[in-house]
Write a sequence for this structure.
């Protein structure tokens, strides 16, 4: 059975995320989260998302403009969004979602706290790690889209440094710069070029 109802999918992905957070709470903090709490949080997340979708600004990296609402893509194009979560002890999780021009979810990816990336506890170091993690998750989500044979891609990120470096083709000799270079290389697999 294929569900085409967007509310069903919103609930499905929100519940999945809640289960992932419950797992992380158990693994990293030894805390057991009640299933009823996950269900309640799911409904809150959906409500918050609907409110945010009405007014939140987003940056479209392809057009380099700020828009008030999610803009529909042209037919045949796909939008790749990615984000990072960091636990208090420095473990990092990646997530990405790929939607088609009708806003249907085509693929999603999550790498939890044991994905091999860890940030030490110092605050300044965490800020640096977080930016690197944002670049890594953008790379991972783009790679998933390309492996799914999608070639007309708009990559979006909420990290201004990642955005600026991709738009201006800046990739210095640092860990962050090498990841940006990898993303730009991946973009060559797209038709013409991924809109970054």
């Amino acid at each position: 059975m294929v569900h085409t109802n967007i509310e069903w999918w919103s609930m499905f992905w929100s519940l999945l995320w809640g289960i992932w957070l419950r797992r992380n709470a158990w693994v990293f903090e030894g805390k057991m989260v009640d299933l009823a709490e996950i269900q309640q949080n799911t409904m809150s997340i959906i409500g918050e998302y609907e409110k945010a979708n009405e007014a939140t600004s987003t940056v479209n990296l392809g057009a380099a403009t700020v828009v008030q609402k999610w803009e529909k893509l042209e037919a045949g194009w796909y939008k790749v969004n990615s984000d990072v979560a960091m636990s208090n002890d420095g473990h990092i999780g990646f997530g990405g979602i790929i939607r088609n021009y009708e806003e249907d979810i085509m693929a999603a990816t999550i790498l939890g706290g044991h994905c091999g990336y860890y940030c030490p506890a110092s605050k300044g170091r965490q800020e640096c790690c977080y930016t690197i993690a944002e670049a890594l998750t953008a790379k991972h989500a783009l790679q998933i889209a390309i492996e799914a044979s999608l070639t007309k891609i708009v990559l979006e990120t909420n990290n201004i440094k990642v955005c600026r470096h991709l738009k201006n083709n800046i990739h210095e000799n640092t860990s962050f710069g090498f990841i940006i270079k990898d993303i730009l290389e991946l973009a060559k697999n797209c038709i013409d070029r991924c809109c970054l």
Observations:
- DSSP finds five helices and six strands in the chain.
- Residues 62 and 196 are 5 Å apart (CA to CA).
